[in-house]
Amino acid sequence: MADLPDLRLHVTLAPVADLWARLSRGPQAVARRAALQALEALSGIVDERVVPQLLADRLTDRLQEAGGEALVREPMGWLLGRGLVQRQACADPRCDDGIRLDTGSDCPRCEDVVQVRRAWRSRITAEADERMPGADSAARRDVIEAGLRRRALIEAEDAAIRRAKAEAEQGRRQAACAAAEARVQTEHKFAAVAEALLQAEPCADCGAQRSGGLCEACGYRRETPCLAAEAGLITAAWSAALGDADDVQAVAAAVQAALPDYRQKALAMPARTPEAEAEARRAYATEQGRRQYRRDPDGPLAAAAARQAAEQARERTAHHLLATRLEQLRELERGRIAAATPRPRSERTD
Ligand SMILES: [Zn+2]
Ligand SMILES: [Zn+2]
Predict the structure, then answer these.
(1) In which band, very low, low, confident or very high, does the pLDDT at 195 lie, cut at 50, 70 and 90?
(2) Strand ranges (DSSP E) for 65-224?
(3) Top-confidence residue, 44 or 268
């Protein structure tokens, strides 16, 4: 019960603390919802403040009928099907077992039912007297009692039908509730598993372990063909470095020659990143706020200077971003080449 943060539920479920303890977490959640629903239903009938105690009293009464908590074999079924359920004995929604929920007195409508029964009794008696005038009292009593039994049977059938309808409705609502709960839990479980599986996936491009299918470096490389081209050049340079020195010279020269063009294209992307945008905006504002433009911060002079400062800041940031990304790529290539290069026999430990 300690896991019930709602004070109302604390009060309500106190009489069934033992039953509650026999429920596992999932059923507890369903039962909690059913209790909240019952509280909700009562809130529409009686003063909000007495609702939890009223529901607790109902649970106590129903437990007494069952012979105590120990004799309840299915705590969940009992709570949802009996303990928490209002037993409307007549058509009045405030009626629970012939007692009015709002006043605690006998239900007038149920008393009407008694009146109706009395009326039926006199009618059946009158009919018997009419059908068999002068019959002896024993025969008369037999006929009347047979008539009353027929009438009672009809009423019982009507009540059973009403009750079955109400129970079916309640069951439908609870089943829907439980199904929704189960669906949510299953979805969460699936999402967690899918997430874990995805996280465990190696990078499709470089094979880096646990990269969620595509590592950051490769993701960036896919986005920017220019960077990919540059990365190719760097790969060539690093591959060559493993061979002879002349080869290194030749490849390095080719890379050096080709780099400015690639770099130009490669910078276009980082220049549009949020980081570059933010830097540009900040530089613009700073320039605009300088003393010399105090008189006319939105004038053409201030605007031109601010624009220039913003462009310079954007370019600076783009260079910085590109340099960072390239360094990441180089690291990656180093790792890949190192992994692909067989170690000399002397260094092997296996
Ligand atoms: Zn009633
Ligand atoms: Zn990768």
Answers:
(1) low
(2) 95-96, 99-100
(3) 44
> Where are the extended beta strands (E) located within the chain?
95-96, 99-100
Structural domain range at position 252: 216-340
CA distances from 296 to 121, 177, 288, 292, 308 (A): 102, 65, 9, 9, 17
Q: Are 132 and 142 in contact (CB under 8 A)?
A: no
Average pLDDT over residues 93-106: 89
Residue 49 lies in a domain: no
Q: How far is the CA of 329 from the centre of ligand 2 (A)?
A: 10
Judge residue 174's burial from the number of C-beta atoms within 10 Å of its C-beta, 0-12 exposed, 13-18 middle, 19 or more buried. middle
202 CA from centroid of ligand 2 (Å): 8
- pLDDT, one tens digit per residue, over 162-173 is 888 888 887 887
Give a yes or no: residue 24 inside a domain.
Answer: no
Ligand nearest to the Cα of 222, by number: 2
Give the separation between CA 32 and CA 36, rounded to whole angstroms: 6
Q: Which ligand is nearest to the CA of 107?
A: 1
Residue pointed to by tokens 């009015």 = 100
Check: CB of residue 72 under 8 Å from CB of residue 21. Answer: no
Nearest ligand, CA 215: 2
- The whole-angstrom separation of Cα 237 and Cα 231 is 10
- pLDDT averaged over the chain? 79
Indicate whether 8 belongs to any domain.
no
Q: What are phi and psi of 100, to 5 degrees?
A: -75, 125
Residue 66 lies in a domain: no
Q: Provide the number of structural domains found in the chain.
A: 1
Instruction: Report how far residue 252's alpha carbon sits from residue 258's, in angstroms, rounded to the nearest whole number.
Output: 10
Write the pLDDT tens digit of every residue in 46-61.
888 889 999 999 999 9
Joined together, the tokens standing for residue 58 give: 């109902």
pLDDT band with cut points at 50, 70 and 90 for residue 294: confident
